[in-house]
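dude i think i finally got it to work??
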Amino acid sequence: MDSSAPAYRTLDFESLSIEEALNILRSSPSGLSEEEVARRLAEVGPNEVVEKKENPLVEYLKRYWGPLPWLMEVTAILSYVTGRYIEAIIMVGLLVLNASLGHLHARSSKKAVEALKKRLSIRVSVLRGGVG
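look at this
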C-alpha cells in the first residue's frame, strides 16, 4: 500500500460524506480510469487475501498442547515413575488417540470449509471511467 495514504478503519467511513470518502480513497463518482487501475495494481498488487497454510504435522503436534493433554501427560509420567507401566501405556495411548481424533476432525472440518469456499462466487460491481 501507499505509505502516504492514511490508514482508516472500515468503521470510520460510516460517518463520512461520499465526497470525503472518495477523496480519502483518491477516487471519483465515475470510478477509476483504466490507467489509474493499472497504476494501483502495479503499486499495491491485486486486492486479495492470501490464506496462511499450516504444516499438517505442526497442526497435529499442537494437539498435545493444552490443559487436557498436559493432564494426561503428567498422569502417564507419574504412572511410569511409580511403576504402573500398564496405566502409563494406557494414558499414552489415550493421549495419542485424543490427538489423532482431534486432528482428523479438524482436518475434515477444514476440507468442508474449503469446499464451501470453492462454491462461493465472489462478485463485485465497479465503475471504470464512469462505466459499470
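Residues 56-119 form one domain.
im so relieved honestly
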